[in-house]
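Q: What does the assembly look like in three dimensions?
Context provided by user:
Components: two
Sequences:
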Amino acid sequence: MSMEVACSPAGLPGRPVYELLGVSKTFAKRNVHALDNIDLSLTEGGFSAIIGPSGCGKSTLLKIMAGLLSPSEGSVVLSGEPVTGPRRDIGMMFQQATLFPWRTTIENVVLPIEIREGKRAALAKYGDAKALLELVGLQDFEQVYPNELSGGMAQRAAICRMLITEPTVLVLDEPFSALDELTRDFMNMELQRICQERNATTFLVTHSIPEAVILSDVVYVMSPRPGCIAEAVPVDLPRPRTLEMMVAPRFGEFVKRIRELLDKGAFL
Amino acid sequence: MTHPQKTVEKSAVRQTTVTESVAWIDRIPRPVAMVLLMVIFLLLWQLVYELRLISPIILSTPLETIYDLFYVGKNILSGDYMLVALWVTTQEVLLGFAIAIALGFLLGLLVGETAFGERAVLPYLVAINAMPKVAFAPLFVSWLGFGIASKVALSSFIAIFPVIVGTAAGLHATDENERMLFRTMGATRWQTLVKLKLPTGMPHFFAGLKNAAVLVVVGAVVGEFLGGGKGFGELIRVAASQLNTPRVFSLIIYLSFLGLATFWAVIWLQHKLVFWHKETVAEQTFE
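A: Here is the predicted structure of the complete assembly.
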């Protein structure tokens, strides 16, 4: 690994937070072997991305990590506790912002608290919610209904909703893929800033190689049928990453490396 | 590419205007168009009368109808027997609507939220809905008598199905992402119902209510035709048996105000409750 990295070096082995060991998933009914022997370790404050062709079992893996699905084999352990169901220390974000139009932005943000602890607890969290909205630049839109927010703004609000429970790990399912390219690049930089500010442990599912490379410390490349991790590619570009890095030769090398791995996987 | 100079003469710049052709009939503003259509209709009506295409005994002139419209209006406003009749029908409509909403909502919940309801109850509801519901009127009369109860029963029976369908469809209107989000937040079934499914289903529910609002009036009047009583339907039946066509027309027109009033009440409520949902042709047309 390169040694001339000045800022916090990427892929540095830190304290493991979220660990998957030998996770396999078979859907007996449909006789589908979706995941095979997945080993993953997310380290504290680290940003990992997983990339793979469609149908490689990414969404199955994601559901297992979110506690929505139990693995057929293997262990899923977050902060020393096995994941047996949805937990408040797992923050999830999806491709769609899924804000609810009958709630104002701030009411949407505190929804996870309202559901877990009731309306009073949610009201008590308004201060935190306001701070989060400020963090993503939505401080003037607290009382606005989501239909007045742009796509990018809606996803920012969704970020706040994910962060309000102060999760240990963030699981992002192609969070910005419904946005246009320019907004998407910008949001990725915002995401990096937010993750760094909060020292969040982040796991990103994406279809975009450049997105995976620019954000991650490690990119896991998956191959399909059954889904398994073909290789873990450490990305030791310095932090904070900037969009200009995307035209640097080193960036291109990482993209090329991952591209090759994906192509190889596709024809196996 | 050269940039045009500011000093260029106007005539030198070729104006590019796209002219969209709109037929003359589409340029008439709404109030004029509506009045125009009404005038054409009345003239045709008068023409049919003048040419004796239909016997004058059973077809009145527009003017006679308008006179009668004033007569009935005066009778209602002065609190005479027609107001009493209108109030009877109004009660039937309101009670019928209330029962249709309450029961329809509960049945919609049963069918839309529980697997049992969908498997066991829904097929029977579909079967009953396919029956000509008006045909049940004599039964309701024999069960509940000639009073208001049999009419309330028929009108709620006719109007309940759109409410059930609207409620059940609304409960199914959430998408995969929304349900997954609620699961990751650890929501209970009750929370998912109250905080996700019911609000999401509101527009569907109200679509059902709008249909029901029209159907309750149908139910009440048909009930009165077949089961007597003291309502507006009875007045229409009597006027028709006397071949008093202008009276039938004007009674129907006043009756339609009752239907419009319930319909508008629903739309008003929808605006208050489903403020985030803006659309529907009906809303645009009736405002």
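Follow-up: Chain B touches chain A at residues 177-178, 180-187, 191, 195-196, 199-200, 275-277 (CB under 8 Å).
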